[in-house]
Amino acid sequence: xxxxxRPQNGFLRSLDAADFEVIRPHLQTAELTQSQVLLKFGExxxxxxxxxTCLLSRMLELDTGESMEIAxxxxxxxxxxxxxxxxxxxxxxxxxIWPGLASVIDTRLLRAAAERSPALSATLAQHGQSxxxxxxxxxxxKALHPVESRLARWLSQVRDMTGSDRFTMTQETMAQMIGAxxxxxxxxxxxFERENLISHGHGEVEIINPRRLVNTACKCYAAIKxxxxxxxxxxxxxxxxxxxxxxx
Length: 248
Hints:
- The chain is of the alpha+beta class.
- 44% of the residues lie in helices and 21% in strands.
- It folds into two domains: 10-142, Sandwich (Jelly Rolls); 146-217, Arc Repressor Mutant, subunit A.
- It is built from nine helices and ten strands.
- Helix 3 (107-116) packs across helix 4 (118-144) and helix 4 runs antiparallel to helix 9.
- The chain is globular.
C-alpha cells in the first residue's frame, strides 16, 4: 500500500517536501509481528524500516554466544540508516519487540535519493550516529551496572517508547535484551513483583509503579532518554539540527 500523506514516523515527517516526494511513491506499509527478524548480522540490508506503531531492537551477538540489545528504535527514527549511507551489510541483527506498522523502502532507492540530497543524507547520518551512541551506552551499561538496574532501565524505556504500561514479554526475552542470564532475570522479576513495581505472568508484563521503577533504573536510563529527546527535537526542528551527545 502506498501512502498518500506523511506517515506518522518522525524521520519521514522531518524531511522537506522535495525529499519526501522523491521517496513517497516507493514507501510501502508493513505489519510487523513480535519477534520477527528484520536483519541478520553480515547479510545485505535490502530494506529500510520507519516504525509507526512498532518497536524494534538492534541485537549484538556476544562472544559467549548470547545476544543483547544495543539500540531501541521507535516511531521517531529509522532502522537501516547506515545502510542507506554506504554500509551495505548489517553490522548487527534486528528484531521486532513490539508489533505494529512501519513504512518500508528498498535500500537502493533510499540510497539513490540520499546521494542526490545532502539534507536527506545528513538526516540519515544523524540517525545512524544516534544508534551508534546507543550501542556504546548499552555496552557500558552491561559492564558497569547490575541486572536489577539494567532491567528497570529497559522496562522503563519500553514504556516510554510504546506509551503503554502493558506489553507481551517473556523472561527469556527480557534476559536477551539486557544481556543477562534468564535465572538472574527471574530473581529480579520476582523481587520487582514483591515490591509492587511490576506484575508478570503468562508472558505479560504490567508496570504498576513507573516512578519507582525509573528510580530503580541505572543512570543510563536518563542518558538514553535525553538522547531520544534530542533526536525528537531534531525531528521537530529539522532546520535547526544539533549534535546529539550522550554519556554514561
